[in-house]
Amino acid sequence: MPEITLNDEFGRAIVTTIQRLSIQSVIEIGSWDGTGSTAVIASALRDMPEPRLVCVEPDIHRHAALQRVVSGLPWVTTVCRRSVSAASLTPRCFADVWDSPHNNLPYEEHLVREWWGETRARHAGELGYLESLTTERWDAALIDGCEFAGYDDFRLLKDRVRVLMLDDAFHAYKCSQAHWELSRDPQWMCIWCSAFVRQGASIWARLT
User: Which strands sit side by side in the sheet containing 201-206, from one edge to the other?
Assistant: First the structure.
């Protein structure tokens, strides 16, 4: 799946949301090498009075590239760490993923099972970054990290932000449950949504 850029509808919706809602601070889960969604968010934040962006990218090679991309932006902080540990993942076994009513992955079972095994191995060990938070808050969060941790990224960030931007919210597992729960929560309103860009994406704003 290509990175989020200003060439796609979701990227442009992110910029519009930041500008219209005067968002000053964003946490980005799944920054990759900094040339995709990081660049999109930074382009919108750079004109804000007090911009702040925290980029979470666990892969050491992508994180190194990310650091080079944002090196001229002192208001950007990068974190080379998993967002959530294996112990804190809501799905406890592969069946929890595959049999979930929120599993909309358009891939064969053996491939998704392989990804699940790799994820469990990678997330083993230290406490995830989001699990270590204390009083930290942001105006907005973009969730586009691990396929199997999207719901846990959401549950750990929901009360720390006023805007949630979800990638892979329709034809995936990653943010499907988060999107479904927000659609039934009267405290949140969908301000942008498309099932046709990427694997579906949505943006939500807190009402209260």
Answer: 76-79, 52-56, 25-29, 140-143, 163-167, 201-206, 188-194
Rounded CA gap, 24 and 22, in Å? 6
Distance separating alpha carbons of residues 161 and 133, to the nearest angstrom: 13
Give tens-digit pLDDT for 26-53: 999 999 999 999 999 999 999 999 999 9
- Domain CATH number, residue 22: 3.40.50.150
Chain Cα centroid distance, residue 84? 12
Tell me whether residue 39 is in a domain: yes
Return d(Cα 204, Cα 146) in angstroms, integer: 20
Query: Considering the domain boundaries, does residue 3 fall inside one?
Result: no
Q: Is residue 4 part of a domain?
A: no
| Total number of domains constituting the chain | 1
Per-residue pLDDT tens digits for 163-193:
999 999 999 999 999 999 999 999 999 999 9
Give Cα separations from 44 to 47, 49, 111 (angstroms).
Answer: 7, 12, 37
- pTM of the complete model: 0.96
